[in-house]
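Hi R.,

As promised on Friday, here is the backbone we talked about, encoded as C-alpha coordinates. Could you run it through your design pipeline when you get a chance and send me back a sequence?
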Protein backbone atom coordinates (compact mmCIF):
# COMPACT_ATOMS: atom_id res chain seq x y z
CA UNK A 1 0.00 0.00 0.00
CA UNK A 2 1.27 3.51 -0.81
CA UNK A 3 2.16 5.35 2.41
CA UNK A 4 0.40 8.72 2.54
CA UNK A 5 1.98 11.61 4.42
CA UNK A 6 0.59 15.09 5.09
CA UNK A 7 3.02 17.89 5.88
CA UNK A 8 1.55 21.07 7.38
CA UNK A 9 3.51 24.15 6.27
CA UNK A 10 5.48 24.56 3.03
CA UNK A 11 8.43 26.50 4.48
CA UNK A 12 11.98 25.13 4.19
CA UNK A 13 11.44 22.63 7.03
CA UNK A 14 8.27 21.16 5.47
CA UNK A 15 9.79 21.00 1.99
CA UNK A 16 13.06 19.42 3.20
CA UNK A 17 11.00 16.88 5.17
CA UNK A 18 9.15 16.02 1.95
CA UNK A 19 12.47 15.62 0.13
CA UNK A 20 13.93 13.32 2.81
CA UNK A 21 10.77 11.23 3.05
CA UNK A 22 10.67 10.84 -0.70
CA UNK A 23 14.32 9.75 -0.76
CA UNK A 24 13.69 7.10 1.92
CA UNK A 25 10.25 5.94 0.78
CA UNK A 26 10.16 6.65 -2.99
CA UNK A 27 6.62 5.31 -3.38
CA UNK A 28 5.19 7.65 -0.69
CA UNK A 29 2.46 10.12 -1.66
CA UNK A 30 3.19 13.40 0.11
CA UNK A 31 0.82 16.36 0.36
CA UNK A 32 2.14 19.70 1.62
CA UNK A 33 -0.61 21.90 3.09
CA UNK A 34 0.21 25.62 3.04
CA UNK A 35 -2.07 28.37 4.34
CA UNK A 36 -0.63 31.02 1.99
CA UNK A 37 -1.09 31.00 -1.77
CA UNK A 38 2.72 30.68 -2.18
CA UNK A 39 5.20 28.28 -0.54
CA UNK A 40 8.72 28.81 0.97
CA UNK A 41 7.69 30.33 4.35
CA UNK A 42 10.20 32.76 5.84
CA UNK A 43 12.65 32.24 3.00
CA UNK A 44 10.11 34.17 0.92
CA UNK A 45 8.54 36.32 3.67
CA UNK A 46 11.42 36.72 6.15
CA UNK A 47 14.81 36.82 4.43
CA UNK A 48 15.58 40.43 3.49
CA UNK A 49 15.24 41.49 -0.17
CA UNK A 50 18.89 42.59 -0.30
CA UNK A 51 19.96 38.99 0.40
CA UNK A 52 19.22 37.47 -3.00
CA UNK A 53 21.87 34.77 -2.54
CA UNK A 54 19.95 33.34 0.42
CA UNK A 55 16.64 33.75 -1.40
CA UNK A 56 18.16 31.50 -4.11
CA UNK A 57 17.47 28.58 -1.75
CA UNK A 58 13.98 28.89 -3.24
CA UNK A 59 15.32 27.28 -6.44
CA UNK A 60 16.32 24.13 -4.54
CA UNK A 61 13.00 24.09 -2.68
CA UNK A 62 11.15 24.54 -5.96
CA UNK A 63 12.94 21.48 -7.42
CA UNK A 64 11.63 19.39 -4.51
CA UNK A 65 8.06 20.51 -5.20
CA UNK A 66 8.42 19.33 -8.81
CA UNK A 67 9.20 15.76 -7.76
CA UNK A 68 6.58 13.13 -8.60
CA UNK A 69 4.61 12.07 -5.54
CA UNK A 70 4.87 15.51 -3.88
CA UNK A 71 1.86 17.82 -4.15
CA UNK A 72 1.47 21.37 -2.86
CA UNK A 73 -1.98 22.24 -1.57
CA UNK A 74 -1.85 26.02 -1.17
CA UNK A 75 -4.44 28.29 0.43
CA UNK A 76 -5.39 25.62 2.98
CA UNK A 77 -5.03 26.58 6.64
CA UNK A 78 -4.85 23.51 8.83
CA UNK A 79 -6.95 24.06 11.94
CA UNK A 80 -9.36 26.25 9.95
CA UNK A 81 -10.08 24.64 6.56
CA UNK A 82 -9.24 21.11 7.66
CA UNK A 83 -8.47 19.77 11.13
CA UNK A 84 -5.41 17.86 12.24
CA UNK A 85 -7.69 14.97 13.29
CA UNK A 86 -9.12 14.82 9.76
CA UNK A 87 -5.60 14.70 8.36
CA UNK A 88 -4.58 12.00 10.84
CA UNK A 89 -7.54 9.86 9.73
CA UNK A 90 -6.76 10.37 6.03
CA UNK A 91 -2.95 9.93 6.16
CA UNK A 92 -0.48 7.45 7.67
CA UNK A 93 1.61 10.27 9.12
CA UNK A 94 1.22 14.01 9.72
CA UNK A 95 4.25 16.31 10.07
CA UNK A 96 3.74 19.74 11.63
CA UNK A 97 6.13 22.31 10.08
CA UNK A 98 4.29 25.58 10.66
CA UNK A 99 7.34 27.61 11.71
CA UNK A 100 7.18 30.81 13.76
CA UNK A 101 5.21 33.88 12.79
CA UNK A 102 4.85 36.08 15.89
CA UNK A 103 7.03 38.44 17.90
CA UNK A 104 8.01 37.43 21.41
CA UNK A 105 6.08 39.59 23.92
CA UNK A 106 7.82 42.83 24.90
CA UNK A 107 6.85 43.42 28.47
CA UNK A 108 7.71 47.03 29.35
CA UNK A 109 5.40 50.02 29.97
CA UNK A 110 4.54 51.83 26.73
CA UNK A 111 5.27 48.79 24.57
CA UNK A 112 1.84 49.04 22.94
CA UNK A 113 2.05 52.75 22.00
CA UNK A 114 1.49 53.54 18.32
CA UNK A 115 4.93 53.61 16.70
CA UNK A 116 6.13 50.52 18.59
CA UNK A 117 6.41 47.63 16.11
CA UNK A 118 7.41 44.00 16.21
CA UNK A 119 10.07 42.94 13.70
CA UNK A 120 7.74 40.20 12.42
CA UNK A 121 5.27 42.90 11.28
CA UNK A 122 7.90 45.09 9.65
CA UNK A 123 9.72 42.20 7.97
CA UNK A 124 6.39 40.87 6.64
CA UNK A 125 5.70 44.37 5.23
CA UNK A 126 9.00 44.83 3.39
CA UNK A 127 8.78 41.25 2.08
CA UNK A 128 5.21 41.92 0.80
CA UNK A 129 3.47 39.23 2.86
CA UNK A 130 -0.10 38.96 1.51
CA UNK A 131 -1.69 39.39 4.99
CA UNK A 132 0.03 42.73 5.71
CA UNK A 133 -1.39 46.12 4.66
CA UNK A 134 0.63 47.87 1.97
CA UNK A 135 1.22 51.19 3.76
CA UNK A 136 3.98 51.73 6.32
CA UNK A 137 4.76 55.14 7.82
CA UNK A 138 8.46 55.98 7.98
CA UNK A 139 7.94 59.55 9.22
CA UNK A 140 10.25 59.55 12.25
CA UNK A 141 13.79 60.86 11.65
CA UNK A 142 15.24 58.92 14.54
CA UNK A 143 14.21 55.33 15.33
CA UNK A 144 15.29 52.58 17.73
CA UNK A 145 15.78 48.90 16.95
CA UNK A 146 16.02 46.49 19.89
CA UNK A 147 17.82 43.16 19.57
CA UNK A 148 21.19 41.48 19.21
CA UNK A 149 20.61 38.96 16.42
CA UNK A 150 20.54 38.88 12.64
CA UNK A 151 16.86 39.91 12.43
CA UNK A 152 17.76 43.12 14.30
CA UNK A 153 20.54 43.68 11.75
CA UNK A 154 18.11 43.10 8.84
CA UNK A 155 15.62 45.60 10.28
CA UNK A 156 18.36 48.17 10.96
CA UNK A 157 19.86 47.79 7.49
CA UNK A 158 16.52 48.11 5.68
CA UNK A 159 15.49 51.15 7.77
CA UNK A 160 18.76 52.91 6.92
CA UNK A 161 18.95 51.82 3.29
CA UNK A 162 18.38 54.11 0.34
CA UNK A 163 15.55 52.71 -1.77
CA UNK A 164 17.72 52.94 -4.90
CA UNK A 165 19.89 50.12 -3.50
CA UNK A 166 16.86 47.78 -3.69
CA UNK A 167 15.80 48.65 -7.22
CA UNK A 168 17.61 45.67 -8.73
CA UNK A 169 15.81 43.26 -6.34
CA UNK A 170 12.28 41.89 -6.55
CA UNK A 171 11.00 44.48 -4.03
CA UNK A 172 7.53 45.65 -5.14
CA UNK A 173 7.01 49.30 -6.15
CA UNK A 174 4.81 50.22 -3.18
CA UNK A 175 7.64 49.28 -0.80
CA UNK A 176 10.28 51.10 -2.86
CA UNK A 177 7.99 54.17 -2.87
CA UNK A 178 7.59 54.04 0.92
CA UNK A 179 11.36 53.67 1.40
CA UNK A 180 12.00 56.54 -1.03
CA UNK A 181 9.66 58.76 1.00
CA UNK A 182 11.27 57.63 4.28
CA UNK A 183 12.37 60.43 6.62
CA UNK A 184 14.53 58.09 8.71
CA UNK A 185 18.05 59.48 9.15
CA UNK A 186 19.31 57.95 12.41
CA UNK A 187 18.77 54.29 13.30
CA UNK A 188 19.84 53.37 16.83
CA UNK A 189 20.37 49.66 17.46
CA UNK A 190 20.39 48.68 21.14
CA UNK A 191 21.69 45.38 22.54
CA UNK A 192 21.14 44.43 26.17
CA UNK A 193 24.54 42.86 26.59
CA UNK A 194 28.10 43.82 25.67
CA UNK A 195 29.70 43.51 22.23
CA UNK A 196 31.27 40.14 23.06
CA UNK A 197 27.82 38.63 23.75
CA UNK A 198 25.79 39.62 20.70
CA UNK A 199 24.41 36.93 18.41
CA UNK A 200 24.99 38.73 15.13
CA UNK A 201 26.85 36.81 12.49
CA UNK A 202 30.10 38.60 11.65
CA UNK A 203 29.25 38.68 7.94
CA UNK A 204 25.85 40.32 8.46
CA UNK A 205 27.31 42.84 10.89
CA UNK A 206 29.96 43.89 8.34
CA UNK A 207 27.21 44.47 5.76
CA UNK A 208 25.94 47.42 7.82
CA UNK A 209 29.11 49.29 6.93
CA UNK A 210 29.00 48.46 3.23
CA UNK A 211 25.94 50.51 2.30
CA UNK A 212 26.03 53.56 0.09
CA UNK A 213 25.75 56.88 2.00
CA UNK A 214 25.18 55.17 5.38
CA UNK A 215 27.77 55.30 8.15
CA UNK A 216 28.04 53.21 11.29
CA UNK A 217 28.84 54.95 14.56
CA UNK A 218 30.15 53.11 17.62
CA UNK A 219 31.13 54.69 20.94
CA UNK A 220 34.65 53.41 21.85
CA UNK A 221 33.58 53.37 25.53
CA UNK A 222 31.08 50.62 24.65
CA UNK A 223 33.94 48.38 23.53
CA UNK A 224 35.84 48.30 26.82
CA UNK A 225 36.22 44.65 27.74
CA UNK A 226 35.52 43.29 31.21
CA UNK A 227 36.81 39.86 32.38
CA UNK A 228 33.74 38.07 31.03
CA UNK A 229 34.09 39.69 27.59
CA UNK A 230 37.80 38.83 27.45
CA UNK A 231 36.98 35.18 28.19
CA UNK A 232 34.33 35.14 25.43
CA UNK A 233 36.80 36.55 22.91
CA UNK A 234 39.41 33.95 23.84
CA UNK A 235 36.89 31.16 23.27
CA UNK A 236 34.99 32.26 20.15
CA UNK A 237 36.61 33.42 16.92
CA UNK A 238 33.31 34.85 15.54
CA UNK A 239 33.08 37.15 18.55
CA UNK A 240 36.65 38.29 18.02
CA UNK A 241 35.79 39.23 14.44
CA UNK A 242 32.67 41.08 15.62
CA UNK A 243 34.58 43.12 18.20
CA UNK A 244 37.34 43.86 15.67
CA UNK A 245 34.73 45.13 13.18
CA UNK A 246 33.15 47.33 15.85
CA UNK A 247 36.57 48.67 16.93
CA UNK A 248 37.31 49.57 13.33
CA UNK A 249 34.08 51.57 13.07
CA UNK A 250 34.70 53.22 16.45
CA UNK A 251 37.99 54.68 15.14
CA UNK A 252 36.72 55.82 11.75
CA UNK A 253 36.26 59.57 11.23
CA UNK A 254 32.77 60.62 10.12
CA UNK A 255 32.18 60.29 6.38
CA UNK A 256 29.33 62.83 6.48
CA UNK A 257 26.79 60.28 5.19
CA UNK A 258 23.15 61.38 5.07
CA UNK A 259 22.03 58.34 7.12
CA UNK A 260 23.61 56.95 10.24
CA UNK A 261 23.43 53.67 12.15
CA UNK A 262 24.37 54.02 15.83
CA UNK A 263 25.25 50.78 17.64
CA UNK A 264 24.73 50.82 21.42
CA UNK A 265 25.61 48.03 23.85
CA UNK A 266 24.67 47.25 27.46
CA UNK A 267 21.26 48.97 27.19
CA UNK A 268 18.24 47.15 28.67
CA UNK A 269 14.91 48.76 27.68
CA UNK A 270 12.76 49.68 30.68
CA UNK A 271 10.06 51.95 29.22
CA UNK A 272 8.78 53.23 25.91
CA UNK A 273 8.02 56.92 26.45
CA UNK A 274 5.09 58.84 24.96
CA UNK A 275 1.48 59.88 25.48
CA UNK A 276 -0.32 59.25 22.19
CA UNK A 277 2.59 57.64 20.36
CA UNK A 278 6.26 56.79 20.76
CA UNK A 279 8.37 59.83 21.68
CA UNK A 280 11.38 58.13 23.19
CA UNK A 281 12.73 55.08 24.96
CA UNK A 282 14.42 54.68 28.33
CA UNK A 283 17.10 52.13 29.15
CA UNK A 284 18.98 50.89 32.17
CA UNK A 285 22.68 50.43 31.49
CA UNK A 286 23.87 46.89 32.20
CA UNK A 287 27.12 45.15 33.09
CA UNK A 288 28.31 41.56 33.50
CA UNK A 289 28.81 40.05 36.94
CA UNK A 290 31.90 37.81 37.54
CA UNK A 291 29.91 34.79 36.29
CA UNK A 292 29.05 36.59 33.05
CA UNK A 293 25.39 37.19 33.98
CA UNK A 294 23.83 40.46 32.91
CA UNK A 295 23.03 42.81 35.79
CA UNK A 296 21.45 46.27 35.88
CA UNK A 297 23.65 49.17 37.03
CA UNK A 298 20.76 51.49 38.03
CA UNK A 299 21.92 54.16 35.55
CA UNK A 300 19.01 55.28 33.34
CA UNK A 301 19.41 56.87 29.92
CA UNK A 302 16.81 58.16 27.51
CA UNK A 303 16.82 58.59 23.72
CA UNK A 304 14.35 60.67 21.74
CA UNK A 305 13.04 58.45 18.93
CA UNK A 306 9.77 58.45 16.99
CA UNK A 307 9.49 54.68 16.52
CA UNK A 308 10.68 51.50 18.19
CA UNK A 309 11.22 48.22 16.31
CA UNK A 310 11.55 45.13 18.54
CA UNK A 311 13.62 42.30 17.07
CA UNK A 312 13.82 40.23 20.22
CA UNK A 313 12.67 36.88 18.87
CA UNK A 314 10.06 34.98 16.89
CA UNK A 315 7.49 32.69 18.49
CA UNK A 316 5.40 29.86 17.02
CA UNK A 317 1.60 29.85 17.11
CA UNK A 318 -0.21 26.75 18.33
CA UNK A 319 -1.90 24.55 15.71
CA UNK A 320 -5.40 23.51 16.88
CA UNK A 321 -5.43 19.82 17.76
CA UNK A 322 -1.65 19.60 18.33
CA UNK A 323 -0.06 19.71 21.83
CA UNK A 324 1.74 23.02 22.45
CA UNK A 325 4.18 24.23 25.08
CA UNK A 326 3.14 27.89 25.31
CA UNK A 327 6.06 28.85 27.58
CA UNK A 328 8.71 27.65 25.10
CA UNK A 329 6.60 28.28 22.00
CA UNK A 330 7.19 24.79 20.61
CA UNK A 331 5.35 21.53 20.03
CA UNK A 332 6.63 19.17 22.76
CA UNK A 333 8.53 16.38 21.02
CA UNK A 334 11.18 13.71 21.37
CA UNK A 335 13.38 13.78 18.26
CA UNK A 336 10.44 15.01 16.23
CA UNK A 337 7.77 12.66 17.63
CA UNK A 338 5.01 14.83 19.10
CA UNK A 339 4.38 14.12 22.79
CA UNK A 340 1.03 14.40 24.58
CA UNK A 341 0.56 15.94 28.05
CA UNK A 342 1.85 12.70 29.68
CA UNK A 343 5.00 12.69 27.57
CA UNK A 344 3.73 9.78 25.45
CA UNK A 345 4.34 9.94 21.67
CA UNK A 346 1.14 10.66 19.71
CA UNK A 347 0.98 7.93 17.02
CA UNK A 348 1.69 9.22 13.51
CA UNK A 349 2.23 12.86 14.54
CA UNK A 350 5.60 14.58 14.03
CA UNK A 351 7.12 18.08 14.14
CA UNK A 352 10.05 19.68 12.35
CA UNK A 353 11.66 23.11 11.84
CA UNK A 354 11.13 26.17 14.01
CA UNK A 355 7.93 24.84 15.64
CA UNK A 356 9.96 21.83 16.83
CA UNK A 357 13.07 23.69 18.04
CA UNK A 358 11.76 27.16 18.86
C1 LIG B 1 13.55 38.14 9.43
C2 LIG B 1 14.21 36.80 9.20
C3 LIG B 1 15.33 36.73 8.41
C4 LIG B 1 15.95 35.51 8.21
N1 LIG B 1 17.06 35.48 7.44
C5 LIG B 1 17.70 34.31 7.26
C6 LIG B 1 18.88 34.24 6.49
O1 LIG B 1 19.33 35.27 5.98
N2 LIG B 1 19.49 33.03 6.36
C7 LIG B 1 18.98 31.90 6.94
O2 LIG B 1 19.55 30.81 6.79
N3 LIG B 1 17.86 31.92 7.68
C8 LIG B 1 17.23 33.10 7.87
N4 LIG B 1 16.11 33.13 8.63
C9 LIG B 1 15.66 31.89 9.27
C10 LIG B 1 14.80 31.02 8.36
O3 LIG B 1 13.84 31.83 7.70
C11 LIG B 1 14.11 29.94 9.21
O4 LIG B 1 15.14 29.15 9.78
C12 LIG B 1 13.21 29.03 8.41
O5 LIG B 1 12.34 29.75 7.58
C13 LIG B 1 12.36 28.17 9.35
O6 LIG B 1 11.68 27.24 8.55
P1 LIG B 1 10.28 26.59 8.90
O7 LIG B 1 9.90 25.82 7.69
O8 LIG B 1 10.37 25.90 10.20
O9 LIG B 1 9.26 27.81 9.14
P2 LIG B 1 8.66 28.90 8.15
O10 LIG B 1 9.69 29.37 7.18
O11 LIG B 1 8.00 29.89 9.03
O12 LIG B 1 7.53 28.12 7.31
C14 LIG B 1 6.32 27.69 7.90
C15 LIG B 1 5.23 27.62 6.83
O13 LIG B 1 4.06 27.06 7.43
C16 LIG B 1 2.91 27.79 6.99
N5 LIG B 1 1.85 27.62 7.98
C17 LIG B 1 1.83 28.11 9.25
N6 LIG B 1 0.69 27.71 9.88
C18 LIG B 1 0.01 26.95 9.00
C19 LIG B 1 -1.24 26.25 9.07
N7 LIG B 1 -2.00 26.25 10.19
N8 LIG B 1 -1.66 25.57 7.97
C20 LIG B 1 -0.91 25.55 6.83
N9 LIG B 1 0.28 26.20 6.72
C21 LIG B 1 0.73 26.88 7.79
C22 LIG B 1 3.44 29.22 6.88
O14 LIG B 1 2.63 30.02 6.04
C23 LIG B 1 4.83 28.99 6.30
O15 LIG B 1 4.82 28.97 4.89
C24 LIG B 1 15.45 34.33 8.83
C25 LIG B 1 14.31 34.41 9.62
C26 LIG B 1 13.69 35.62 9.80
C27 LIG B 1 12.47 35.69 10.67
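Update: got your reply. Pasting your designed sequence below so it's all in one thread:
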Amino acid sequence: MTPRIAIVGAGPAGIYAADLLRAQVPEAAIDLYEKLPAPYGLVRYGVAPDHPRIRKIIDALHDVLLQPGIRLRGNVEVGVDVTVDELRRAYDGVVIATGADRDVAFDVPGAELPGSFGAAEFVAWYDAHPDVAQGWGLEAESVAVLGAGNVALDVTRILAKHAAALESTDTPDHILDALTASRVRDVHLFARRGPADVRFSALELRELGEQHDVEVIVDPADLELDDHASRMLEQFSQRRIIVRTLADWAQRPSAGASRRIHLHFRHRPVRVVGTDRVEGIEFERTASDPLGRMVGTGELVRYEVGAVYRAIGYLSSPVPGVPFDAARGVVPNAEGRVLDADGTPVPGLYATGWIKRG
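One thing I noticed while checking it: The mean pLDDT is 96.

Thanks again,
M.
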